[in-house]
Amino acid sequence: MATVLAIEPYAARSHQAWLDGLRTHSRHRIDALTMPARKWKWRMRGSAMHVAAEIAHRDPPDILVATDFLNLAELVGIGPAWLRRVPKLLYFHENQLTYPILDESERDYQYAFTHLTSALAADRIAFNSAYHRGAFLDALGALLRRMPDHQPTWAVEALTRKSAVLPLGYEPDAVAYRADGQTNGDRPLRILWNHRWEYDKDPDTFVAVLLDLAGQGARFEVSVLGETFRTAPPVFARARPLLGDRVVHWGFLPDRRDYVRALAEADVVVSTARHEFFGLAVVEAIAAGCYPLLPNRLTYPELLPPDLHERHLYRDPADLTTRLAWCAQHLGVVRTSDVASAVGRFAWDRVITLYDTLLDDLLSKE
Q1: pTM tops 0.90, yes or no
Q2: Which one is the CATH code of 3-169+347-364: 3.10.20.310, 1.10.3720.10, 3.40.50.2000, 3.40.50.450?
Q3: Mean pLDDT computed over 52-79
């Protein structure tokens, strides 16, 4: 059993869940050093200095794991000497090369270069999906070719060789059930939207589809969950009174038990995202028994086996509206559809083998 120091400078809810799953299920001993999820730009610029001071007098671990909010190259340069010797894994939850922003001309590529130098300083890098890995490496090549001279395009091949895909995990015991009476009664279709209340999840399209569906006279309820930050998309404030008594839940459920029950009581989980590197919220909803309707883009085709794509991946908002109307008319089919088994491979007790195998490989090459 190896000793692993895991550094998470931005312990947002999903990042903390990833770290907790790793600590719970790995056969190695995982010691964690975390910082609160505040001011992500400051975290990327300053967390290496804080971490260097925190670990200055620690005994060296066997392996160091860091996430993408840490400037790993900077930490190696200013931290204790043992950092040069210890094998290092950098894990990408997201990246600042392809994360969508409202005005592309305002993208600060300094953060992209932080990702590049951090990845070069690591012995292995891992992404939460194959889609994420491909998008990052493609965008990195395009960025480096924009440099006026001395283009380090060799870095793309170097990072490709040492890259891996390590999916996020979920706890099956927490979500793999359906509420009593879920398949009975005359309750209308319950539609779930359980994403962050931010523009990159495209809530405008989701609300437009719901209002179109209501205009067609479809019977449905809606459960709109997900974490809300300082500012929420204005469309939600406009939509709430328009949806009226169709609303069952509206807003973040801080208690995990309440959240899981809301997943289990829903019939269909919908995503309209324009950005998704993995999709843990969707995976958890499917594992809880929801019938997924997901866009045929981003990471979503990767979450479901190919034989389910035609049924569960939609082309555009009009197609999504049509599919939801069908679901409202075929409740028995929707509520007895077994898609949960399709995401069982993402349960922590299964994906941990991928993590531990990679950690073992790092240790063997120390």
Answers
A1: yes
A2: 3.40.50.2000
A3: 97
